[in-house]
Design goal:
Length: 260
């Protein structure tokens, strides 16, 4: 079976979608999948599904959801799918079958390759990691207090993977390919100085110095108007270097250290 959470929750068996229709059963499944092979406390399931004022029947209802998940998927597994283990339940699954685990593994491999100076492998691993995303994490489930931190964690790892893949592609001289993506990202994150820095560097590297300077000026205006601050010293120095036509060497180690 394949479980995907980087987008709407989906469960695939032999290429066919096999997912409960009831939202709260899917919601319960999502909690167990994000902590696959670990104990998920019953109280956490109840807090997630009903918040601070659960109904008196919450425990019985949660147990019913677990029963329905066991019944639905028990024939798909040679061993147990969900077992009871105090103070809650454990969903047993191969991490290679859950996209969140695969995503984190590929991101770690890509980061390690980048640190080791293997930009080709880094770009490959990180691109594969990012390709797993089909939209916002669990976009069809109304995340509560337990799921929300997991979703935030995955979103942050995705942004780091995107930054590292940008560095790997830049190290390989793929500046022209990076420019459209970096333009989109700087518009989506108008206060992110690091992304603007990468766009300025890419534009300068392909001979578009005027566009690079305009990118800096746009960021400068945005920061001043919205936050009352000026660009950081590294960006100010980069702006000066573009003005005078200087291209500074940018080692992978230095760039990694500069990442937010």
């Amino acid at each position: 079976m394949i479980f995907t959470l980087l987008g709407p929750l989906e469960v695939h068996f032999d290429g066919e979608l096999d997912l409960p229709s009831a939202t709260k059963i899917r919601w319960t499944l999502a909690q167990l999948l994000l902590r696959a092979n670990q104990v998920v406390d019953r109280s956490a399931i109840i807090d997630e599904l009903w918040g601070e004022q659960p109904p008196r029947s919450a425990l019985t209802t949660a147990q019913t959801y677990i029963y329905q998940l066991r019944k639905r998927y028990r024939a798909r597994f040679s061993g147990p799918f969900i077992t009871t283990r105090a103070p809650g339940y454990v969903l047993h699954a191969d991490p290679a079958e859950i996209d969140t685990f695969v995503f984190e593994r590929l991101t770690e491999e890509g980061g390690a390759a980048l640190v080791a100076g293997d930009a080709v492998r880094a770009a490959d691993r990180l691109r594969a990691a990012l390709a797993l995303w089909r939209g916002p994490v669990l976009s069809d489930i109304p995340a509560g207090p337990i799921l929300t931190p997991y979703i935030t964690h995955l979103d942050e790892i995705r942004m780091r993977a995107l930054r590292m893949r940008t560095l790997a592609d830049a190290h390989l001289g793929r500046y022209r390919e990076l420019i459209p993506e970096l333009r989109f990202l700087t518009h989506a994150h108008p206060y992110d100085e690091w992304l603007h820095e990468q766009l300025i560097v890419a534009l300068h590297a392909v001979g578009r110095r005027a566009d690079a300077l305009e990118t800096y000026q746009r960021l400068q205006r945005t920061l001043d108007r919205e936050l009352g601050i000026a660009p950081s010293q590294p960006l100010h120095q980069l702006h000066h270097d573009v003005l005078v036509g200087v291209e500074r060497p940018r080692s992978a180690e230095h760039l990694l250290q500069s990442m937010p």
